[in-house]
Structures are given as C-alpha cells and as structure tokens.
C-alpha cells in the first residue's frame, strides 16, 4: 500500500496492524464529519487500535452492476467501520459455496467514506437560469448551495422549460430506461419527460432471441442448463466469455468443476483471458465483430462433412421437428423456398459458399481449425455452446444470436443433459434456471409518463445537438411498445436530468455527449462522487449510498441480481454522510416545489416499501416447483418496524435473515432444483410450443427481419447472413480487395474490468494501485509500432483520442487492442485528449439494426506519445468543497 486517500498518511511505513488503524481513521475522518469535524483529532490511534476486535458486524450492501452478489460485512464500532469481511454464514463447499466478495466489495469502505464523496448540493459558478456560460461546463468552479436553493433553481427551470418548449424538452437520462428512476415519478406527474433507452449488456440479444424462440425476454437466465449439468459436458465452447473478470461470485467455480469432471474448453475470443487461462482452454483467436462469419464457416463445414452413417454431425431429427427455415422443405409459408439457410450457406444461389476459407479471411481463425471445431461439436458429442453478449455488443450483429441458436440446433445441443446452447453471462454465468429465490416488490403504484418521446442511446447526443431523432416506440428494450416503425421526429432538449446510471460515461459517443451537455440550459446530476455526469452538470445533488439507508435486498430477481440460489438482506452501516439525501426524499421535495403532492409521488414511506418487499420474497419449496414466502413475520416485527402489515409464516425468521444477511438455498447433486433448458420442448414440440409465431426455433424469421428493418437504422435478412459491420474489421482497410490497411488499422475492444464495476470504483486508490488501466497490445503490433511495455500510447480515431500506457502481451491477437471498460474520462481542455482512458471517448454515435450499442465495433490507430502519463494512482482525488 502506498496511498491512504483521505488522511494523507504514507502507508509504506505501516505494518498490517497499523494499516487497520489507518483504515479506521479514514472511516472516522469522514463518517463523523457532519456531526463533529474535530472528532478525528480526538481519536488517538491507540484508542482505535485497542478496540478493533469489538463492535458489531453488519451486512453491508454491495449494490453495483457487476454480475456478483456477495455477502460483505462491516465491523462497526461507534458508527465507524473498522473492518470488512465476507460470507461466513455457513461452511464453504463446492456444491454449497459461500457468497464471497471480491477485491472491489472488500474495498467498499474506501468508497463510502472516501474523501471525494459529494458533501453538499452544488452549483456551477457561471451557471445562470437559461444556462449562463455553457462552455465552462466541465471546467467551472463549484459553489455550495442549500437544498432549498437547489430545488428553487431546478423547479424554476423545469417550469420555464415546460411553458416555453413543452415537457418533451426535459430529458431523464438513465442507463437502461428513464421510467424507472425516482425522479421519473415526480416528472411523470409534472406532465412527463423524454426518455432514452439502451441495449447495454444485451446488444442484439435484446430483440433477436425473444423473436426467434431462443430466449424469452425476462428469462435470460433460462437458456442453458444449471451448474450441476455443466459437469456432464465433454466440450464447452466459450464465445466471448470472461467470467473470471466479469461474473463474480461462484460462476468461475462452476466451470472449474466441469473441467475437473473432464470437460475440454474452446475459446472463441480475440483475447486469451483469465478464464481461458484457468480452464486451459484451446484458443481460436477471433477478430471482434466477425463471429457471424466464423459461425457460418462452421455451419458450412458441418453440412459438407456430415455423413449420417460414418460421421454424423447434424441432428436432422431435431432440425426437422423443432425448427423452421433450415432448408427449402421447412420454410415458413410467407417466404420463398430459395431463401432458406442451407442454400445460403452452400452458396447455391449467390455462388459464394460460406466455407471455412471464406470465413477464415474475415474472422482470422485458421481454416482447418474451423473444420475441426465443426467435427468437435458434432451431434454425438456432449457439448455446451455458451456465449456471453460481448460479441453482440457490436454493430450490425442482429442475427448473431439467431446464428448461435442455428448452430446449436444443427448439432442438437439443446434440451438434454450434457447438451446446451445459449447465453450465460453476468449473474447467471454457468448456472441456468429459474430463480430459486424470487425478489419481492415494494408495492408502489406505477406512474405513467404522458410523453412518449423515447430516444435510442445511439442517437441521444446527436438528437440533442441536431434536434431530431428516430422514434421507434416508448420505453426500454424490454418494453412491448419498443421496436415500432421508425418515425423521424423533431426534439428540442433543454434540460438533462441525470437521475441514475453514468450515461455520459457508458453510452457510446462520449465526445458528442460532452458537446451535447454544453448545449442545453440546465444539467442536473445526482451523485455520490464527481463522476463524469456530475462533472459536466450545473447542479449536483449529493445522494446517500445503500450503506446509509435503513436496509434493503439484493439478488433474487432477474436483472442486477445474484445467482439463482440466493438473496441478500443488507442493513444500515452509517448515518447519512454530510448533507447527502435519499433519492426518494429529493423526488418528494422537488415535487413540492412543482406543486405536486408528495403523497401522490410516494403514497407510503421507505420503511413500508422495505416491509412490502421483505414479505413478498418467495422461495422454492422442496418439490422444486412451487414457491412460498421466505420470511416469517411476527406481530412484534411489525410493531418494531412501525409498519402496516400481516404476520406470515416463512422459512426463516425476520431477525435471523437480517442477522445472517443472506438466504441461500442449499443445493446438492440430484436435488429437485436442477434445470435442463428446452427439455419439454425438445421431447414434444407440439405440446410445448415456443412463443414464436410458428411455435418453433425460427432459423428463418420474417418477423425478426420485419421488426428490425422497419425501425430504419439498417437492414437484415430473415435468416442469419453475413453483413459488413460498420467500424468492423473490413473498415480497417482502405482497400479490402487489395488488403491495403487504412488510417485506423486496429480493432478496439473494451472488456469489463476487475478494477471497476463499469465506472464505479474507478476512484478507489487501492484498486487503482492493484489494477492498472493500460491499453493491451499484442507483442507483434507493439514491435511494428516501436512500443515497449509501459510506453505512453495515443489511441485515436475519428471520434476521439485517449492516452494510456502499453501493456504488451501475447494474450491478445494481432490487429486488436483492448481498452478496459469504464475508466473515468479526464479530458485535457487544451488538447481535447482524454488522459483518463475512457473507452467511450473512442466509440461512435450511430444506430444500426435494432438500436444496438456497438461498444466492441471500433477501429483506431495507436502510436507512441512522447509525454509521460501520470499514473492513475498518483492523480489527486476529485475532492470538491
Ligand atoms: N465501451 C463500452 N461501453 C459500455 C460497455 C462496454 O462493454 N464497453 N458495457 C455496457 C454495459 S454492459 C452496461 S450494463 C452499461 C452500464 O452503464 P451504467 O449503468 O451507466 O454504468 P455504472 O458505471 O454502473 O453507472 C452507475 C452510476 O450510478 C451511480 N450510483 C450508484 N448508486 C446510485 C444511486 O443510488 N443513485 C444514483 N442516481 N446513482 C447511483 C454510480 O456512482 C455510477 O455513476 O455500460 C455499457 N457501456
Ligand atoms: N469486474 C466487472 N465485472 C462485470 C462488469 C464490470 O464492469 N466489471 N460488468 C457487468 C455487466 S453489466 C456485464 S453486461 C457483464 C459483461 O460481461 P462480458 O460479456 O463477459 O463482457 P466483456 O468483458 O466485455 O467480454 C467478454 C469477452 O468477450 C470478448 N469479446 C469482445 N468482443 C468480442 C467479439 O466481437 N467476439 C468474440 N468472440 N469475443 C469478443 C472479450 O475479449 C472478452 O474476453 O459483466 C458484468 N461483470
Ligand atoms: S462481485 Fe460485485 S457484489 Fe461481489 S463483492 Fe465484488 S463488487 Fe461486490
Ligand atoms: Mo451490462
């Protein structure tokens, strides 16, 4: 350790015991600051160290969108956190593992009590009603204001905007969908707001799978079999997967058990990552955004090498019973026979067979390896074809999930033990099946947004700058009203209200985003730190973290949850710090200023919402089919909580649940909680049809093509075909035929990174020190570009420029560079270069297909930069006021 953030002590001199004291002091210096700023001086180091083994262990929330849900506990003494630990609620075993935290969760006290927490409402010095000096956004000084002043400024500007330009000039910015924030309730009652929507994690898994029968929306955790069945596979193909970095908790353990049971792993990925290394996977280095070409090559190889007697590779019976569109004899009624998949792959009509050689030219995987892959995944082998969604967070990838499904269907790896095909990522990685513990509900009535304007994230910043966008329906990607016929609309955004997420940072086209922020009249941001959203705002409102809330739950549901087997109950660790407030409080106070009754926004308080959620958590019964309430509630509990409710009988008492901080279903081999995806469908497709139009897996889906094409961003066919990807491999060439490289000869990917959960935790010095944030470059490319390990590298393209230090490696294929996702942007106003290395400084703002964010379709150049870059850990924290 060489850095202690908030007390400025050099830890190098410290031993472990001293270090604990320092951590205690760090917490002390901030957690007590509101009530008594001098307390830090009164606490002698000796006094604190004497007491480090005393205090109360409290289950502390780790609420980030990281794909894990782990038990983190904080040892609290007199309101000060002096230690953290992880799950010790039961003894650890492979089949019933503890829910252990990662390095980020364990350093969370550095986040909650960081000296860089936002302490008071703030206003940008040169902001005035109407915008003031707008260009100073991102560089201006900050002034402390009272909550009342903040609400007056915001409500006046909202009223003026509503009157002069209409409610659709107010944008609520949120990562997934604007309608789910607390402020959306207030502004819904105020007459509405413009929404934005984003495909984020899902990429083209947003619309495609649900339409073709591969994965129903809301049940993305049910496309592959459960973790015990992984151990029955002989071969596990991993397409764009890195659970060791991006699916914490026990996901990687699941794959490791499959390896121990004898499975071999094959990695289809531009990077030989930590997961592949651990599982000793065979690597097929694949260029980003070219998976469609590779898999078409596999389909071709399967077709030409299949021999039902001597070399059976294709499961013709499954194809015929369970799919539609594979060949001319199985086409949907409204399609021409020659438009079938098989003839496209063989090149019957277009005279271009999609053979291994053709595929190899595009994807980079050796021709023979493609053929070998086809042999390995043949129908008689026990195979899992698993994929994460990174390969679909690419442009023009709308039919990639359909193609993965097609390969799975051709080889029959669906609906049987030891066979599976599907996506498995984030909290569901390596463990498919319905939740065994289902989250409860706060029971709040929904407040509808009377305005239907909804902007796709890929057009959002341009829409603000250019005044027009493509309307394709209201709501998020999961909403049934999205994906309608594209309609060009005018829009005049005057207010950006950042009410959740880190959109300026995590959406593509950050440079355009910053410009857009400089155009509008008012930017409001809720925040715990001076994040990128807050940095470019005019009014910043400090919010509490879940450590400062009464309590709540994590996991047990679908998105942002833990694995299917558990739910966490977290409790309050500290009183709200400084003047930070809850978002519900902000929503209510703003409502009052806007003349809306707070009771209309929230008919009951946060404690009652907590109770409603607690009592509606459901847990599976021993039969593996039915569910019952999880928690027993007594009259005494109700009285103590001061809520309205009924007693109920569950599997665990309220007190015990709160004390343990977690409920986990105990599992063992052969229990009733196993899961085989598509089992019933495979056995009897007529009795258990899918929810597609034909009831089958649609290898040809006119519905998908129609839905995507009518949006108007770019077009696809009803069957999976190869489409040239904007900002993909082919675009790295000036002349593809002559193979002459262009101005941006490298492809860039942006893997999710251990130092952070997206942008969260990027400000933590411990993590900055443990995990540098380099640009990964292949050794061959480094040599060509005269780059050494550690050199400062300028990474640039038509959208922006970033600086990072080189990490030269053989674990990335040549021609590809990797910039870890989520670093906080740090643009030098003089040069416009981002010294923070934010990934989205380099991504473009444009929509393709179903409105997919194309984070992994990006082309750049790299070159040596002469100035040295200050190491992230040596940069000062962003401490304001
Ligand atoms: N280039 C590139 N971009 C990507 C990706 C990629 O792979 N490459 N991945 C994409 C994916 S998969 C995703 S899911 C998105 C994630 O995009 P975001 O959801 O925007 O990412 P986070 O950094 O998790 O943002 C959470 C923000 O909320 C703040 N916060 C924490 N608690 C609270 C709270 O209680 N209230 C409020 N209002 N704020 C709070 C945090 O400080 C943080 O700023 O990023 C996407 N962006
Ligand atoms: N530590 C940490 N964990 C996280 C997150 C985080 O920010 N930090 N974010 C969470 C969230 S919200 C999500 S959605 C998940 C995402 O988790 P993942 O989908 O696993 O995300 P990535 O790390 O972007 O990509 C995984 C692998 O895909 C490869 N890849 C990239 N592009 C392509 C391509 O075009 N084709 C192929 N075949 N491979 C490709 C990368 O090299 C990488 O090895 O992670 C979750 N977990
Ligand atoms: S994996 Fe996520 S939930 Fe678990 S400790 Fe790490 S940051 Fe927290
Ligand atoms: Mo995500």
From TrEMBL:
One of the protein's GO biological processes: anaerobic respiration
4Fe-4S Mo/W bis-MGD-type domain mapped to chain residues: 55-116
A single GO cellular-component term on record: outer membrane-bounded periplasmic space
Protein origin, superkingdom: Bacteria
Listed GO MF terms: electron transfer activity; iron-sulfur cluster binding; molybdenum ion binding; molybdopterin cofactor binding; oxidoreductase activity
UniProt keyword annotation of Iron present: yes
Gene3D superfamilies from the UniProt entry: 2.40.40.20, 3.40.50.740, ADC-like domains, Dimethylsulfoxide Reductase, domain 2
InterPro entries for this protein: Asp_de-COase-like_dom_sf, MoPterin_dinucl-bd_dom, Mopterin_OxRdtase, Mopterin_OxRdtase_4Fe-4S_dom, Prok_Mopterin_Oxidored, TAT_signal_bac_arc
Keywords carried by this UniProt record: Iron, Iron-sulfur, Metal-binding, Molybdenum
Family membership: Belongs to the prokaryotic molybdopterin-containing oxidoreductase family.
Descriptive protein name: Molybdopterin oxidoreductase, chain A
Species this chain originates from: Sulfurospirillum multivorans (strain DM 12446 / JCM 15788 / NBRC 109480)
